């Protein structure tokens, strides 16, 4: 597949003529090619978006809704083809890619309806001393203008839709910069919007490398809002480069699960065996750390290890495969090194730990030091690090003891413990009797601390992609 960029409704090569090959992390075959955008292409995309924003902000909400609902239907119809693309360019199993692709239409629909609910509020100005009934105040919401959406490789369809759909629903024009390793999915989904009747200038996709065009896009004063999902390191850079703009940053994590002595250990083991290995652990809310009470550590590990052993790795396109590859062999080498380093420091590898090409075997590591890199740094791979904590205070201190705060889970049979966890765990999502790896697309979703700023989920994203104006009608005193 030889794809083009989409700038202002036109299918284009890069101004320089440069091209990137997109390869399968499983077998290295070329899945497609895309233009490698440079600064001139980035500039053209923002220029088109400025024109698009002027058109789209004057398009009534009912018309935006109609186009987005049509795009949602197209995304549903094309979900099987989109799933094939996701699996091919990302390496995730076709089962997981099918789930991802099938969620896109619904996120467009949820966002479309939120765009039809841009309510403001009336202001009780007469409550301000010196003001009477002669004035009326209210707020109105309007689009930001140009939204720059930058997305990572791990959910190349869904995470692009979580930005594009709310931005369009709110009346903005969008420039999307998908991850350089997985741009084909984003291009395929963009077609759904354009074929649904979206004016061409309203949605552009620049395929290129963040290190080459990222700074120029982020710093561009014509961009009013940057919505970024990716690593904390790039998020920090964006926050330094952006200048005066609205920013949403969905960043990295090292998500914990706490298992108290009264937990249902079978439930906890099943949930961790799913939540630590989905998408080969390349999920921002993947279970990375499990903190158990010593009284139940042995029984929990006995329940976990056979479940992890049962995960079937292999060709992502195979319907029996439950876990595919990492995004690249380089990443797999990095993940394996982190596991090896933990083992060299005294941790015990109970299962897994080996690697073949871009596949890392599902791994459980016990007796991990909470201050070690396997706890403190984001792993983004298929391994779970288990450590113990003797009491509540040390369990919560461990759960909170990393620079991140995206999502957390606690297993307990005690409501009091659950309430305390809700209050004391510093994470944007807290799950009681489940792991951090759970998301309904409609819920507010976003991290604390080094995991980011702002929330996604259609209602919050639409709100964050609008500006609020306060309006005062000045009558005459009477
Ligand atoms: P990454 O930060 O390397 O890249 C993400 C995107 O940023 C890519 O499109 C890349 O091209 C672009 N980029 C790189 N340098 C840039 C720059 N200087 N300016 C602007 N853009 C730039 O992340 P990745 O490796 O693609 O994805 C994995 C990371 O994403 C993990 O840290 C993971 O936790 C995080 N993530 C977070 C969430 C969340 O909701 N919090 C969801 C998914 C992934």
Automatic annotation (TrEMBL):
<dbReference type="Pfam" id="PF00171">
    <property type="entry name" value="Aldedh"/>
</dbReference>
<dbReference type="InterPro" id="IPR016162">
    <property type="entry name" value="Ald_DH_N"/>
</dbReference>
<protein>
    <submittedName>
        <fullName>Aldehyde dehydrogenase family protein</fullName>
    </submittedName>
</protein>
<feature type="domain" description="Aldehyde dehydrogenase">
    <location>
        <begin position="21"/>
        <end position="471"/>
    </location>
</feature>
<dbReference type="InterPro" id="IPR016163">
    <property type="entry name" value="Ald_DH_C"/>
</dbReference>
<comment type="similarity">
    <text>Belongs to the aldehyde dehydrogenase family.</text>
</comment>
<keyword id="KW-0560">Oxidoreductase</keyword>
<dbReference type="InterPro" id="IPR015590">
    <property type="entry name" value="Aldehyde_DH_dom"/>
</dbReference>
<dbReference type="InterPro" id="IPR051020">
    <property type="entry name" value="ALDH-related_metabolic_enz"/>
</dbReference>
<dbReference type="InterPro" id="IPR016161">
    <property type="entry name" value="Ald_DH/histidinol_DH"/>
</dbReference>
